[in-house]
Amino acid sequence: MGSKLGDYVKLREILKYIEERRHEDGGYCFVSLLNETNINDTYYAVKIYDLLGMKVPEQEKTIGFLYDSLKPQQAVVAVSMAIEGLAILGAKDLAKDGLSLVFEKYDPLQGKFAVGLGGSEEFGTATPLEATYWMLRALKATNHKISPEEKEKIKEFIESFRKGDGYGLKQATTTMTYQAIYSLNSLDYKIPKTSHFHRCEVYGGFTEVPYSLPPYLEPTFYALRGLKLLGERPRYVKEHINFIRALQNPNGGFRRSLEMGISNFQNTYRALRALDDLLGF
């Protein structure tokens, strides 16, 4: 996989960018001069190495960092990231230890869907659908079985965000539409058909809502993931590849738009994952 992506982006610079931001505690911080390692950056470092088929350097330290980060004060999104990261690193028993923290904050049978608990990676404060999406990723990573009653409650909750043939708060958005259909699929429900992603496709990238500009990396990532889940193909594969390639900064990382933006681990993973998806269409 790495060699295939290496034909399109500067992989050596990406790996240098990630490695220079690894700290002694095994965690990562995308602002290299800061010692404030965090779950988000560490999770995406793990995801990048995993996508490239590479082992995380000093992996045991990173396992220790993620496990030590499993604390009650962490929001559902952060706890779920740490759990999935541990599972990717082969520490599934440690990952399962973190599930009790998730269930304290997320109990569909009691009507608790982690509402208002903050800790978003997208919007500052997590939307309840985002918390559901990350919780289900953590359960999938640890092979945790959800009861039929819980599945039905979560499905009802997800459907409460339906806006036309997409999902959102006030209107359908690319991010929430993907999170909804991923979640329904992970619960073994049939994925509802949606034209939302195609309506957000422009000649190089995708937008968050239909018929708007400019395109950004995050809706491009979510739209491509969504289309792949639906078994559909984007119209402008070559143009999307060129759009993503143009987002690589001189330090090796990726920004979110053509106009401006600093590199971070989240954008760098999304760029690589989206490129890998595009090369598979």
Automatic annotation (TrEMBL):
Residues 11-63, 130-192, 220-275 form the Prenyltransferase alpha-alpha toroid domain. InterPro entries: Prenyltrans, Terpenoid_cyclase/PrenylTrfase, UCP016175_prenyltrans-rel. The keyword Repeat applies. Gene3D superfamilies: 1.50.10.20. Keywords: Repeat. It comes from the Archaea. CDD domains: ISOPREN_C2_like. Signal peptide: none annotated. It holds the Pfam family Prenyltrans. One of its GO terms (molecular function) is catalytic activity. This is Prenyltransferase alpha-alpha toroid domain-containing protein.
